[in-house]
Design brief:
Layout (H helix, E strand, L loop, with lengths): L9 H17 L4 H32 L12
Helix pairs in contact: 1-2
């Protein structure tokens, strides 16, 4: 599934990251494959974190600031 601009969705990127983690945990990759997978995983992690931050910001805007930022949650 892709969004209207042809990019992968949050859920697709999260599933891809889960797949990378599973392959790395299986321990059957070469060092080069592991490094490439790690690099891709870090790119996905950054993109996912950015999207979550944007969603949190939007939720705060919509709620008039009554939603507590995640880093302030107990």
């Amino acid at each position: 599934m892709t969004d209207k601009a042809g990019r992968t969705t949050f859920e697709e990127r999260l599933k891809a990251l889960d797949g990378i983690v599973a392959r790395m945990e299986a321990g059957e990759m070469t060092l080069q494959e592991s490094l490439a997978a790690y690099e891709e995983g870090m790119k996905l992690t950054r993109a996912l974190n950015e999207e979550l931050s944007q969603a949190e910001k939007r939720m705060q805007e919509l709620s008039g600031g009554i939603i507590m930022p995640m880093e302030d949650a107990p």
